Amino acid sequence: MESIKQVSLQNLTDNFKDLTLQEGYIHVPDFRISESLTEPYRSNYYCIGFLKEGELVIHSNLIRHEVKSPAIVFADPVSIKNWEMPELPYKAESILISEDFLQEKIIENNILKGFSDLSGNGTFIVQLRKKEAGHIKSIFKIISSYTPPRSVFHKEIVHGAVYSLVNITASIRTEQGDITPSTNSLSMQFRKAVTEYATQQRELQFYADLLNIHPKYLSQIIRKETGRTPGKWIQHQIILEAKILLQKEEMSIGTIAEHLNFPDPSTFGKYFKKYSETNPTEYRNYIQGIQQYV
């Protein structure tokens, strides 16, 4: 959806003065979860994060991921993400990478796109053993050493470090086996369809027809495998999309209601309040208040 607000690398450098956009990437040596990251957002970059100490929780496309150190967190640009505010101390580092940066030197198959396909949700976690964590730490140290640039070959060096992160993570993931649900499973196909069509299609019959299955059977499988009814998945997705649009100040409530296929702003407002316990205007004011301190 083209009109949905995204967080870009440039946005981050504009709002966080201690971050510097290099040639297609940002190195975040001390990743902190701010209030703004607890609300849903999309990004126009890939993220490879390294949780060194503590625990974090990230939600991606309505799936809750508990991350325990040491671990790698990979997130693609497509998924809708938000973090839970941690109660205990943690240490984390990350590199945020544009698609152009990734594509510049890749000649073989695009590894990161394969990662996204494997994860199904666009986000996955890889637990690390002590030795593996040491390797990842060393690679991030190289990235840190050449950010900001300290060599005419700094970009090539950072490229090499990023691809090493990708290959090591892929190797560990292969060794551990694919612990995420199969991308061909019915529940995963349904969740992908909801992500794509929920703003325009809210009826179970549509998804049953799309997946070539009886609605009753689809409902039984989704409830059994996910603990939620199909209707709940659709409702949550619509609210996520609405929250992202409400962060876009230039869009009126009426325009958002139309974009989400509601007949009028009043119907949208009632729906939003029913499932988020606040009305669209209150949510927008809350977001604007958070952004003042970012």
Automatic annotation (TrEMBL):
SMART domains to which the protein is assigned, alphabetical: HTH_ARAC
Molecular function per GO: DNA-binding transcription factor activity; sequence-specific DNA binding
Gene3D superfamilies hit by this protein: Homeodomain-like
Lineage top rank: taxon: Bacteria
InterPro entries, per the entry: Homeodomain-like_sf, HTH_AraC
Residue span, HTH araC/xylS-type domain: 188-286
PANTHER family (alphabetical): ARAC-FAMILY TRANSCRIPTIONAL REGULATOR, TRANSCRIPTIONAL REGULATORY PROTEIN
Protein name, entry field: AraC family transcriptional regulator
